[in-house]
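Structure (tokenized):
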């Protein structure tokens, strides 16, 4: 392994360790010695890569931001419609928030008053949601009369709310929570010809009764055919 490769691995280990420490202790109580020990290096090695704790926090947010952008771009390349890309990206985001400490810490650090570090990941997410909705409108896959900014605001509010609630109860980051949201929103959001083609559970998720139920909806029948949540079987992680 070259010196440059070792330095890259050390930096990544420090970022991941910092994410865990920030998540467990908060920014104010996080200590550099905890971050360095979690990465298996000395504090001197940490200072080689980062000037101070603020620089470490900014690196965590930047790493989460890069991950969000790369993930969204990759999903759009493999999906046929912008609306399905939106659904799939939201599921991938929640999956990251559930399983990736860098994503969780990045959102918390960039959005909380304790330590607001640029970039603002919720604003980045809002921008991406709006881009996909604009693309869907241009393709004619949105229902008539949809206010794209209202749809973007609802999507961001729900996913951001799941992120905050999920800090204390992981159930809020379960796939079925987000699937339920899309089951409610897609019949209003998508054009009638597009709706049967969309999977609210995400195209990378296992088939579920909720996805099958939504595929059978038509615009005029949506409310009549929506089964009560208590009668549906859901999958939990």
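Design, position by position:
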């Amino acid at each position: 392994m070259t010196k440059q490769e070792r330095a890259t691995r050390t930096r990544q280990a420090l970022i991941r360790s910092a994410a865990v420490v920030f998540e467990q202790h908060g920014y104010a109580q996080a200590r550099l010695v905890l971050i360095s020990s979690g990465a298996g290096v000395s504090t001197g090695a940490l200072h080689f890569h980062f000037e101070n704790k603020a620089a470490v926090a900014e690196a965590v947010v930047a790493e989460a931001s890069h991950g969000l952008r790369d993930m969204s771009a990759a999903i759009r390349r493999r999906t046929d419609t912008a609306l399905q890309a939106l659904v799939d990206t939201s599921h991938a985001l929640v999956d990251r928030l559930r399983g990736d400490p860098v994503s969780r810490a990045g959102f918390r650090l960039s959005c909380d008053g304790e330590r607001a570090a640029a970039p603002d990941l919720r604003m980045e997410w809002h921008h991406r949601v709006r881009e996909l909705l604009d693309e869907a409108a241009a393709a004619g896959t949105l229902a008539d009369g949809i206010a794209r900014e209202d749809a973007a605001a609802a999507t961001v509010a729900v996913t951001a709310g799941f992120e905050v609630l999920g800090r204390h109860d992981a159930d809020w980051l379960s796939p079925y929570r987000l699937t339920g949201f899309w089951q409610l929103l897609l019949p209003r959001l998508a054009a009638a010809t597009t709706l049967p083609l969309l999977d609210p559970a995400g195209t990378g998720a296992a088939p579920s009764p909720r996805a099958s139920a939504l595929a059978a909806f038509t615009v005029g029948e949506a409310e009549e055919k929506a089964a009560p949540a208590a009668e549906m079987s859901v999958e939990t992680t």
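Reviewer-requested clarification: The chain is about 70% helix and 0% strand. The CA atoms of residues 4 and 10 lie 10 Å apart.
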